Amino acid sequence: MALLDVTDLEIAVAAGGKLLPVVRGVSFAIEENETLGIVGESGCGKSLTSLAIMGLLEGSQVRITGGSIQFDGRELTTLSAEDRRAIMGDQMAMIFQEPMTSLNPVYRIGDQIVETLRQHRDMTKGQARDRAIELLDLVRIPEPTRRVDSFPHQMSGGQRQRVMIAMALACDPKLLIADEPTTALDVTVQKEVLDLMADLQTRTGTAIVLISHDLGVIAETCDKVAVMYRGKIAEAATTRELFSNMSHPYTRGLLNSIPVVDHDVEWLEAIPGRVPTIDEVLPGCAFHPRCPLAEDRCNAEDPAPRDVANGHAVRCHFAGGAA
Predict the structure, then answer these.
(1) Cα 213 to Cα 121: distance, rounded to the nearest angstrom
(2) What are the residue ranges in the chain where pLDDT is below 50?
(3) CA–CA separation, 40 vs 214, rounded Å?
(4) What's residue 125's pLDDT?
(5) CB atoms within 10 A of CB 127
């Protein structure tokens, strides 16, 4: 049994008296000590999927309308709010995209880590503070005994992201969701953070869901990849299989838009057009207005996922050479 098993997940936004679908039938699974990369442009449903897994959609205009989320054998969509809170931050944790908006600016970073520990572990305040210092040292914050009393604004962007990782790992979670954890960082700090996550996974066996725009980051860090477009998984495979046999034109477009340092090009390739808004109704394949292979069939018929090789699933009429 997979540690996390998402099946036919449906998420919609309530607007104007209607439910507008934003995530449409997403399915994936992840095992212990495995890293799944979810990649795609902004607006494709990556972050909403992660928030649904964490149970952070409650009380908003966004809601789960169908499907199943099973974590460690438990169905999360039917758990009570109290049971969900017991799991969140303990057995499953999340690193958010921008630490400056995720950390409370008026509390010291040590106090914020201590709060997590005391919520889920039977610790005194002193024990929790000692553990917070250990965690800051684990994520390579210099002088952790001093920096434990710092406020978020007194730290660099990379250090704040390390604090977020320390907080997420405080209770040794089985699952860690990292929502674009390196977006606001320069490339040197980005590599340090990714190496840190990989090192911690090796030590603890934590499963990681890594959400990113960057196929280069995904290629270096993930065991499996799911490429999302307009709320659906367009292509999914092991990392090795996907990068050796990209089959969806959207995935190829994402890869071709990445600059290559050893090639002298005047213009980078770009996927034409834009991601459709949630209130646009598109018949057929959602990618067809932007697809270089599109034919009349693509405008009329939404393709079902095809298995082209070794569990490599592609949602395209042309997958595996089919037409």
Answers:
(1) 35
(2) none
(3) 8
(4) 94
(5) 14
**H-state helical runs in 58-186:** 81-87, 99-102, 109-120, 125-138, 144-147, 157-168
pLDDT value at residue 194: 85
Decide: residue 302, CB within 10 A, 0-12 exposed, 13-18 middle, 19+ buried: middle
- List the domains of the chain with CATH numbers: 4-91+171-314 (3.40.50.300), 103-170 (no CATH)
Q: How many CB atoms lie within 10 A of CB 150?
A: 18
The pair of structure tokens assigned to 79 is 């758990």
What is the structure's pLDDT at 320? 67
Cβ contact 174:92 at 8 Å: yes
Residue 85: alpha-carbon gap to chain centroid: 20
Question: With b meaning 16 or more CB within 10 Å and e meaning fewer, what string describes 262-299?
Answer: eeeeeeeeebeeebbeeeeeeebbbbbbbbeebeeebe
Q: Which positions ≥6 away from 285 have C-beta within 8 Å?
A: 291, 294, 298, 299, 301, 302, 303, 315, 316, 317
- In tens, the pLDDT along 176-194 reads 999 988 776 777 777 888 8
Q: What is the pLDDT of residues 236-269, one digit of tens each?
A: 999 999 999 999 999 999 988 877 766 677 777 8
